[in-house]
Amino acid sequence: DADVTQTPRNRITKTGKRIMLECSQTKGHDRMYWYRQDPGLGLRLIYYSFDVKDINKGEISDGYSVSRQAQAKFSLSLESAIPNQTALYFCATSDLGGAGNYNEQFFGPGTRLTVL
Amino acid sequence: AQSVTQLGSHVSVSEGALVLLRCNYSSSVPPYLFWYVQYPNQGLQLLLKYTTGATLVKGINGFEAEFKKSETSFHLTKPSAHMSDAAEYFCAVTGGSNYKLTFGKGTLLTVNP
Hints:
The complex is a heterodimer. Helices cover 0% and strands 55% of the residues of chain A. Chain A is mainly β. Chain A is globular and about 40 Å long. Chain A starts with a strand and ends with a strand. The mean pLDDT of chain B is 92. Chain B contains no helices and eleven strands. Chain B is 0% helix and 58% strand. Chain B has strands at residues 2-7, 10-14, 19-27, 31-38, 44-50, 56-58, 64-68, 73-78, 87-95, 102-103, 107-112. Chain B is mainly beta. In chain B, the strands form two sheets. In chain B, strands 2, 4, 5, 9, 10 and 11 form a six-stranded mixed β-sheet that branches. A five-stranded antiparallel β-sheet of chain B has the order 1-3-8-7-6, with no helix packed on it. Chains A and B meet through strand 5, strand 9 and strand 10 of A and strand 4 and strand 5 of B.
């Protein structure tokens, strides 16, 4: 089984709809992240969480919210989806790190979201 | 603050030719550097990383990268390209205890038969 799973893998929705993307991990990591990927822009950080009670905005958090239900689960919500939120969304995890704390991140397979 | 510049959004090579993907970084603290690979319809997979120590880093699938502090570079190379290397490659940087992984915009590698 994959260490980091995302559901759904593909989703088509309409403008104005609320949508939730879910991420689960079995790696036992404390830190979880949500990124979006757009062609030619690389990956941009939306939100990150260091533990269940610690959630922080990334560089492009407007229009998104998150919930860390448990150490292993981190959900991303679009309260009112708009077309420019059409993108590939990735969840990632990392450990607190050992010596050096170099923050190697492990990625899920992605969710392709289309907002019409 | 950190930033990453990947030179060339698309690189095309022939099978068996040298692969060179360029990455330059900016960091106010000693950097930790990563190369990730994304195959079609898949997530990102770590190819290799530099943290401390030896500046020439070997990764999976025959790839390697050299950290050059004086040039602020971390270019990715492979002596002989294979068709299966066709993918998008991302360079990323983080610094010290900073959680944040900053990605470049990616380089799409095409391998021609």
